[in-house]
Design goal:
18 helices; globular; mainly alpha
Length: about 325
């Protein structure tokens, strides 16, 4: 903060410096300042689509979904080849409304522009391992693409081969293909365990990467029915990257821990984490919880029903 403040005093119209300041304010959960700095960055660089996307993520975290939709339309106009923008737009429509129809419309548009296989890649490799309702939406609508979906040769930032295996495992589990799902969960376990061992031997990965690997291991062990190991790794990720340390990313390990608890049958522990996520800025909403099949087992729980506003999730 001190260094970027000094830089801004020297170059007050440097858009990148304002963007970085916005990120740092977000890390400290200073959300009004984060928005102001990011908006200033865009004012100074109005045709930079990625900066508009950064503001879109920030607004989604603050649950200002109408603004997110408008921002993403603006970013798509600037970057019509940005497939990730369609993925994010569909995801945010799920967050906003808790229905799938509007999200499906975005995915259909994306398929028309980029093809089923490319959209499948974007859906299953969501950043930070969030296998959300988007993946299931896509699977329901385009099962042939998912059936032939190959392992990519490379992965975007904050994803790896374990991301792919966990995404496929979740889809297979949702479709009732338990044996195939278990094989993919075990592949995810092997990959994440190997990457974690490599990181702990002295490599210096991005600071968010080790918590991600623990979250991946937690989900893999949950899918394999190894409850104690699943909870251990899920909680380790939260301990390494808590909300108090990172406003921008601390919600992701917490969401993964909620999912782990759901998968291993600890409903109250899962709902405790979801209640916390809904009480702070995060990429979790009552809308997404209503339609995400990963949390379907919670839908008869009275606390979960109350959490969603007293309405039974469909």
């Amino acid at each position: 903060m001190e260094h970027y403040s000094a830089a801004l005093s020297l170059q007050p119209n440097n858009s990148d410096f304002h963007l970085f300041m916005g990120f740092l304010h977000g890390e400290r959960s200073q959300w009004d300042r984060a928005v102001a700095s990011t908006e200033r960055a865009i004012e100074l660089d109005p045709n930079n689509g990625e900066k508009i996307v950064d503001l879109g993520f920030l607004m989604a975290r603050l649950r200002r979904y109408a603004e997110v939709d408008a921002l993403l339309d603006r970013a798509i106009a600037l970057q019509p080849d940005g497939l990730h923008l369609y993925d994010m737009k569909a995801f945010c429509r799920v967050l906003a409304g808790g229905t799938t129809e509007n999200a499906r419309a975005v995915l259909r548009d994306a398929v028309g522009r980029f093809g089923e296989d490319n959209v499948a890649t974007a859906a299953i490799l969501r950043p930070l391992l969030t296998v959300t309702a988007l993946s299931f939406l896509f699977d329901d609508e385009y099962p042939s693409a998912m059936a032939r979906f190959p392992r990519p040769s490379s992965f975007p930032l904050f994803t790896n081969a374990a991301t792919f295996y966990l995404g496929k495992a979740a889809l297979l589990r949702h479709r009732g293909l338990g044996q195939m799902a278990r094989a993919h969960y075990d592949s995810a376990r092997v990959v994440a365990d190997s990457l974690l061992a490599e990181a702990l031997r002295g490599a210096v990965p991005p600071w968010i990467y080790v918590p991600l690997l623990h979250s991946q291991l937690g989900l893999a062990y949950a899918g394999l029915g190894r409850k104690a190991e699943a909870i251990h790794h899920g909680q380790t990720a939260v301990d390494l990257l808590p909300l108090s340390k990172s406003g921008n990313f601390g919600d992701r390990p917490l969401e993964m821990l909620a999912l782990i608890y759901t998968m291993v049958g600890e409903a109250d522990a899962a709902i405790d984490r979801l209640e916390l996520l809904l009480s702070v800025p995060s990429l979790v909403s009552r809308g997404s919880l209503r339609v995400d099949p990963q949390f379907a087992s919670l839908r008869s729980h009275p606390r979960f029903v109350r959490l969603l506003g007293g309405k039974q999730a469909s």
